[in-house]
């Protein structure tokens, strides 16, 4: 537990003063000012339907971020990160340098290039939670809390959580952008040998 607490506080450490700063992370909502023209946002900014994409209301400023999407119904969808320059009317996202997304077929795209793909037999289904961690270099994906070992990188600039929907899909954004949750996931997914090594330190 000590390693977990240390890591969580470390995510918010102020390197200039050596203090630990605890910040209330913003509640993630979909931003109706940054969405495709055929997108409908419902459930107090938490659910997307229609056709097109939408970014969240706050950028990923902290060093390590975690957020989740719940697949309400299957169809054409994608989740990941994007800048405000992304074309939210053109789906699937991931066609330009302004978005890095997991698509419903398990591929991860950025700048019209497949960067990675989920393991076989790991496609998200209706009711599944897709978790995303991002550390301003690498995006990692989790399915119902399990690391998919599917890293991707390449996007630059200020990024936001992004989601898009198409035919028959409903996707809901969950929770807060949470640096502490990032650390918890990191701890839970350490290799057993690394975990023992960490716990054995004095």
Automatic annotation (TrEMBL):
Short name of any one Pfam family annotated for the protein: SPRY
Matching InterPro entries: B30.2/SPRY, B30.2/SPRY_sf, ConA-like_dom_sf, SPRY_dom, SPRYD7
Source lineage: Eukaryota, Metazoa, Chordata, Craniata, Vertebrata
Name assigned to this protein: SPRY domain-containing protein 7
Coiled coil: none
Boundaries of every B30.2/SPRY domain copy: 1-182
């Amino acid at each position: 537990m000590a390693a977990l607490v240390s890591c969580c506080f470390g995510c918010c450490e102020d390197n200039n003063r050596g203090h630990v700063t605890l910040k209330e992370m913003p509640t993630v909502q979909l931003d109706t000012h940054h969405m495709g023209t055929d997108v409908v946002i419902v459930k107090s900014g938490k659910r997307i339907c229609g056709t097109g994409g939408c970014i969240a209301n706050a950028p990923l400023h902290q060093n390590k971020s975690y957020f989740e999407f719940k697949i309400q119904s299957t169809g054409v969808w994608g989740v990941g990160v994007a800048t405000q320059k992304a074309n939210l009317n053109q789906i699937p996202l991931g066609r330009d340098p302004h978005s890095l997304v997991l698509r419903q077929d398990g591929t991860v795209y950025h700048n019209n290039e497949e960067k990675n793909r989920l393991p076989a037999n790991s496609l998200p289904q209706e009711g599944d939670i897709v978790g995303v961690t991002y550390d301003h270099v690498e995006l990692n994906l989790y399915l119902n809390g399990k690391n998919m070992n599917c890293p991707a990188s390449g996007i630059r600039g200020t990024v936001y959580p992004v989601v898009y929907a198409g035919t028959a899909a409903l996707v809901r954004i969950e929770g807060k952008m949470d640096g502490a949750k990032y650390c918890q996931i990191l701890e839970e997914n350490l290799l057993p040998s690394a975990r023992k090594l960490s716990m054995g330190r004095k």
